[in-house]
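User: I'm writing a tutorial on reading structure tokens. Could you give me a worked example: one chain, its sequence, then its tokens, then a sentence or two explaining what the tokens reveal?
Assistant: Sure. Here is the example chain.
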Amino acid sequence: MVTICVLERARVMKKITNRDREKLKVAVEESNKFSKLWTEYGKSKMYFSMIVGLSIIICIVIYFLVNS
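And here are its predicted structure tokens:
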């Protein structure tokens, strides 16, 4: 009787861990997707800020050339 109870408990625990493992796998995949999106967003933001910075510098240079 005790061994049956222990085996049943072990089986239930195994089911729970398998389910949790699946959830964990899904969560890891979601976080990987999010981090990929974040790096893509970061790259595009960096390029955008570089372009804006360069255009501001060019405008300042042209302004000084015109005024001198």
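What the tokens reveal: The mean pLDDT is 77. Residues 2-67 form the longest helix (66 residues).
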